[in-house]
Amino acid sequence: MATVELRFSAQPEHVRTARLVAAAVARRAGVDEAVLDEVRLAVGEACSRAVGLHRSNQVTEPVRVVLTEEEKTFSIEVGDGVPGAGVAAADAAGVPGTRTAAPDTGFDDAEGRDEMGLAVISGLVDDVEVSAGEGGGVIRMTWPVSPGAGVPGAAGAAGMGGTAGPVL
Fold first, then answer.
1. What three-state secondary structure class fits 78?
2. Is beta strand 2-8 parallel, antiparallel or unpaired with respect to 63-69?
3. What is the pLDDT of residues 117-131, one digit of tens each?
4. How many CA atoms lie within 13 A of 113 on its CB side?
5. Are 66 and 76 in contact (CB under 8 A)?
6. pTM of this structure
7. Residue 158 has pLDDT above 50, yes or no
8. Range list of β-strands (E), the chain
9. Left, alpha or beta for 97 (phi > 0: left; psi -120 to 50: alpha)?
10. Directed axis angle between helix 36-56 and helix 15-29, to 10°?
C-alpha cells in the first residue's frame, strides 16, 4: 500500500494544487483516464468544502489530503478540523459513513454549502463515505484501479513504489 499525504493551509488558492496532485497520483495508480475528471472535481469540491469550514470557523490547522493506492482501489481522504461539522449535512445528503459526534449546531457551515458540496461529491463518486467526530470530519472517496494500467516506471518517480523510468 503506497500513500501520499498532502497538508495545506486553508486558502482557496491551494485547492487547485490538491486537485492536480490527486489527478497525477490517481493516473499513476491506474485509475481509468475517463474517470480522472471526476477525481479532480470531487477532490476540488471536498477541499473547497474543508477550506470553507476552516475559514468560517477560524480553524488554523491545515486541511489534510491522503491519497492511498491499494491493489484494487485508489482512495482519497480529505479531512477538516471542525468537530461535528458535516454530520447533519451528510445525513441529509444520504452519504454513508460513521458519525461519532452529534451534529454540532454551533459550527458555521459556510452558508449552507456543506450539504450541497456533499451532494455534488456523492454524484461524482460511487463509493464515498463521510466520517465525523470530535477531531473533525473526513470524506473518503474510492475508485477502482485497472490492473497494470498505471504509468509504467513512473510510479517510483512519484514515490508510489516500483522502479523509476527515464526522465524526459
1. strand
2. antiparallel
3. 888 898 999 999 988
4. 13
5. yes
6. 0.77
7. no
8. 2-8, 63-69, 73-79, 127-133, 136-144
9. left
10. 150
Cell numbers representing residue 105 in the block? 449546531
Contact present, 89 and 115 (Cβ < 8 Å): yes
Place of cell 470557523: 57
**Cell 454551533 appears where?**
106
Contact 99, 131 (CB under 8 A): yes
* Grid coordinates given for 118: 456533499
Average confidence (pLDDT) over 19-35: 95
Sole residue written with cell 463521510: 130
Residues 6 or more apart whose CB falls under 8 angstroms from that of 160 comprise: 2, 4, 25, 28, 29, 69, 150
Do the beta carbons of residue 133 and residue 83 sit within 8 Å? yes
